[in-house]
Amino acid sequence: MAVQVLIDRLLAERRMSVGEFAARVGITPANVAVLKNGRARAIRFSTLDAICRVLECQPGDILVWTED
After folding, report:
1. 3-state class of 65 per DSSP?
2. Does residue 54 contact residue 19 with C-beta atoms inside 8 Å?
3. What is the tens place of the pLDDT at every residue in 32-64?
């Protein structure tokens, strides 16, 4: 897939654990792993909104398109 999710970098910059992030966003740690590992096939706008709110970032800071 050409769209990458860059949550790892943002979590490291904010010194936030996956568990804390998942709890604050309202998703399971397993779903965070799906996003981090590039296995997600879709993301709800409400989830993207919560991620951006928790990480204090823009969607473009999380989602990056690259050519295959």
Report:
1. strand
2. no
3. 999 999 899 999 999 999 999 999 999 999 999
Question: Residue 68 and residue 52: Cα distance in Å, rounded?
Answer: 26
Q: What amino acid is encoded at 50 in this protein? A: A
Show the tokens assigned to 19: 């568990």
Q: Which two tokens stand for residue 16?
A: 């936030």
DSSP state of 45: H
pTM equals 0.89
Any idea what the Cα angle at residue 56 is, between residues 47 and 60, rounded to 5°? 70
* Ordered domains of the chain (ranges, CATH): 3-65 (1.10.260.40)
H/E stretch holding 3 reads strand 3-5
